[in-house]
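Before a computer can learn anything about folding, someone has to put a protein's shape into writing. The three-dimensional part falls to structure tokens, numbers that each stand for a local backbone shape. The protein below has been through that process, and both of its lines are reproduced in full.
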Amino acid sequence: RKLNALKMPDNPLDKLIEELGGAESVAELTGRKGRLVRDEEGRTVYQKRNANEVDSDTGRMVAMERINLAEKKAFMDGRKLVAIISEAASSGISLQADRRVPNTRKRLHITLELPWSADQCIQQCGRTHRSNQIHGPEYQLFMTACGGERRFASTVAKRLQQLGAITKGDRRAADASDLSMFDVDTKWGKKAYDELIELLSNPLFSSTRPPPPYVRRALGLKANDELHARWKEYLDDAEEAVASVGINTDDKGSVKGFLNRLLGMCVKMQNKVFDHFMAILEEKVRVAKQNGEFDDGVVDIRGESVKVAANFPREMKKDPISGVPLLHFKLDVDRGLSFKRAMEMLDEKAKSNETGKLYPREGFYVSKRPLIGREKEGPNGVKALAFLIQRPMSAFAVPSTYIHTYGIHRPNTGLGATDSFESFTEGITPRFSKLTPEAAKDKWEALYRDGLRMCSHGPNCKHGSRCTVGKRVQQQHLICGAVIPFWAVIKEHLEYQKKGGRDGSLQMVKVMRIVRVRCVGADGREQRLVGVEISDKGVAKLDAALNNQPAPQDVKPDVKPDLHQLGRGGASSSSSHGGGASSSDVKPDVRGLRVGAHVKVHGLATDAGKKLNGKSGKIERWDAAMQPSGRWIVRINGQQGTNALQAKNLGAL
């Protein structure tokens, strides 16, 4: 009697069918033979799937073994506009917007549960994305906020990015958005995981050091008197949770295994540990990007308008084999945002918000202090303006601890940095205050016009026209065309650049990147360019190098630079080269490289060479006998013996 009185929840699949209009409106393609439905009295009764299903061609009742085919036909004919597919029916069925069927509506494919296998997910997505379709489908992959479920998202994202790279040559081509935010199983993810496990392996020692700000934000820890106690409590709990699910802190495993093990923790703890992991990962990626070590893939050049400058493109050199020229494009990128465009962006954001209007912190802001150099213009000086648009919540965010970030848009430079509201408005001293659109209009348009003819410092800037801070139009340079034949020369002169560190040291930072852009040519037609982005100085260096280099067929692209270990303990290397060249063979000073110069090693690709990257040393002599084109003999600081290195792998300090 008690069992009969219990009100059990409905089967999720049956509930879904009922909410979407019932079996009359929903095509079910699964492996089951029946379903539970509510009768007129509200009782749950069992009903066969082929009950009341009539074949539109024969007029007879559909046989159970053909029910999935009949349901598929009803969906493709447009008699049922919703189809629910299970894993049992996820292969061999075509549900795309085929030109040959009546139902050619664009498909919205929702995955309610990510499968264990990435291949299975690709198989499911392939049901609605097939040949002969009128529209491509839109995919929505749902997941919960549990940290452990990120393992499935990471696996699927990695596979989708690989699919895009294979088919289109672009890791982002598998989707309209970048899936890299879901892929945490990377070399940076491994470094973040190793750091996390090292921290949790000894909570007693780790608790003696305060957590960095990015970890405090992720864990919701405030910098007050309770910080040490709460940080120690978290480390103890996390260490116990990690040990309880079998994560061995002594033997560092893989990110994939870590995410699998997270599923064994309680939801609250797995979210905390995952948030900690993500905070470390995001910081490592940020630092890697800052140091030029992060591979962004193909980067887009964006602006409100992008035009090819007058008298461009110009030919730098022609490949004698194919006859294809190496072209230099100079682009004028206008980053400015007019007031009209700013209002359009805010209106679009308001419509996309759940409330139908802007969130309280979105909108226009004015600086409380005038711009540097423009303090004396007008009664109160010229002040900076910006408007904020709240960024979408991170895919891995937990709403209870998430700190919203905002895109900061300015009239002269467009979209700038992304920051939290507190950092933008307050900082050390109050910086910005809210402004109505009516009050912002004239000031915004004035700054928008000024950005076209002067920098942010105003007409009296001491650097004059050479200052580009805050100017609307930025000039960017691209090398396109016959890039591959000249790749060795381009890579040698443009891949690395010397930058000063905060401690006053010089670092060789990788700056070369591949970019793509849509721009307007001199004839007014749209052009799509993909090439290597370089600086003004890089153009001059490349011009000089190309004019002094032999024809490209004589240049051997050194993908893995040679690294020859010469004599140990200071012994001469000449014996290994049949006498070789003596130290009297002097090469002309090129890029600051000469005998006695202090240098830093970079760009070595062999296993032995990678250990020398970033280390500094002193040039002892030039060996012209080593082929091809000679080598510098360098003694690395703190090591015995010398190394023979090419000029492109050395940067003068």
About this structure: Residues 267-290 form the longest helix (24 residues). The CA atoms of residues 151 and 260 lie 6 Å apart. DSSP finds 17 helices and 26 strands in the chain.
